[in-house]
Amino acid sequence: MLKQIDSVDPFGNVLVKNLKEINFIFCNHPLYQRKVDEDYEDEYQEAGLHHSCALFSYEDMESGKLSLFGEEISGLTIYRGWMMKPEMYSDFYKLLEQKGIYLINTPEEYERYHTLPGWHDDFAEETAQSVWETEGNIENILLKAKQLNGPYIVKDYVKSRKHEWYDACFIKNISDIANTTRVIRNFVERQGDSLVGGIVLRKFMDLHQIGFHERSGMPISEEYRIFVYAGKILIMDNYWTEKEDIRLSDVEISWIECIAKKVRSNFVTIDIARKDDGELMIMEFGDGQVSGLQQIETKDFYQSFEQEERISAKEFFTDGTAILIGDPMPDKSVEQMQLDIASISSTQELVDVYVQVHNKFWYIEDALYDYEEESEEYIRVKEIVEAWGEMMDLLDKKIMVAAKEERLLAERQLNSGTVKQLESFMKKYGYKDGGRWWIKLE
């Protein structure tokens, strides 16, 4: 049926002659059927300026029921919403198809790029070496681990637990069977029913660091998110921050375009990072329908669908990004940090501790988005995040007072946070704004 829309193969080609003909479908609000989920409100409003937009109940779909609201749509449609396990997406696709609504990616295409085993072999030379088992069985993956050496990451087909870096994600030496078993077991137990597919071991790669925290050793690296539509770059931007001005070369952009041409799906994301040797590598693929925009402006994203011709990557901002490879203080408890705060005896110590807590909070705060609200895991992680958040609020007040006393606290500007106010003060004590993180001046 997809082939009939524009008489082309279902993947790797533009399926409509005018991209304005594409519809969008979003999750509705769980309490208000005819309102969009509040996390997608901006996207819904922007998409609705030039496209027909429908809503559906994600909760009903979890039980196999399709409940549609909003505009009536038909034809080619892009879903924008929460991740679905491949089985759920397949049901979603088939139920929509019965109503004349055709999602841009088939269930096979969705699974191919939503799960690591689906795309890994096609891009094995461009990504980290990986092995996996298919049942979520710890003993199975430990057998595969015996053939490996060096540092690895454990994850499932879709997600890792990067917010629990040393406890349930990073394995410093895979040959250390006791620690390897501990980390993998922690990961599997904590994923619980959220585990997708099987267990994956990914070779840990040294990425090009553009900075690191003096005390914690927090690595800061360069990464990009690219949306690919029909084998061509739709839009791209840095992954975390707009502050670092690192440009991709023409050769590197051409390399990304070659990767995009090899994609066997209509709409995906590719996350690219720079290795320590300067070469680019693929970190992850994702289905474009369930991938976040990261630093891409909502308006820019939906305007990219207004173009009848594909836009070259060179026309988009290609700045680099600072990302956290791991928890900046994986072994530091809330209680230990409270003791550190109580023993502060100088402004430099105050600033150093402030940076540690600030970066820790914003790193682990990301973890909340990995879980369904009110689930046991969500509640557990939320308690940890809130404890660090309380410390950050306390230190925010102390640091503002210190900056004011030194007459280095700038006036707060409209639509600007405290980071701009603190720039001169933080620079005096050796730090600069890394977008989301405070990082050490070189």
TrEMBL record:
Occurrences of domain ATP-grasp (ranges): 149-303
InterPro entries, alphabetized: R2K_3
Record Pfam families: R2K_3
Name recorded for this polypeptide: ATP-grasp domain-containing protein
Lineage of producing organism: Bacteria, Bacillati, Bacillota, Clostridia, Lachnospirales
